[in-house]
Design brief:
The structure is a single chain. The protein is of the alpha+beta class. It has one domain: ph1033 like domains (ph1033 like fold, Roll), CATH 3.10.590. Helices cover about 20% and strands about 35% of the residues. The protein is built from 3 helices and 7 strands, in the order E-H-E-E-E-E-H-E-E-H. Strands 1, 2, 3, 4, 5, 6 and 7 form a 7-stranded mixed sheet that branches. Strand 3 and strand 4 form a beta hairpin. The relative contact order is 0.25.
């Protein structure tokens, strides 16, 4: 069974985990992106879900994709390849999910930068995904 992870990003502060310049084009069109991981890289496996949590002003889940390649090290940083689900991400960009309505603990730097989704939040995301 696939796991679900929340990947918190910002929209431009001093963090290196920020939205790419061309965001949300890759997510809307089902492209593949490579994102950096500081910790938690060993948890993610191929076919796991990655939900993008905008941790700045919006504080919402705004895209979802699947791990398409095992995490790997490049230039002393771990990276993860995500193939975006264009249909689900387009729906999230139109109608984002607010985490304040769920039971998931969120902070700007969660288990920076990736956190396993559990409990009621996982049930909610599965129901939402299956309803689209």
């Amino acid at each position: 069974m696939s796991q679900h992870f929340i990947y918190p990003i910002s929209d431009g502060d001093s963090s290196k985990y920020v939205l790419p310049e061309d965001w949300p084009v890759p997510a809307k069109h089902g492209h593949t992106s490579t994102w950096r991981l500081a910790r938690g890289w060993h948890q993610a496996k191929v076919d796991d879900y990655v939900w993008v949590y905008n941790s700045c002003t919006l504080k919402v889940l705004e895209a979802v994709g699947r791990v398409s390649k095992p995490p790997y090290e490049d230039s002393s940083e771990y990276q993860i390849e995500i193939t975006w689900d264009g249909k689900l991400s387009t729906e999230l960009l139109k109608n984002p999910i607010h985490l304040r309505d769920l039971s998931q603990e969120t902070r700007k730097n969660l288990i920076s930068p990736i956190a396993l989704v559990r409990g009621e939040t996982l049930e909610h995301l599965e129901q939402w995904k299956n309803s689209i």
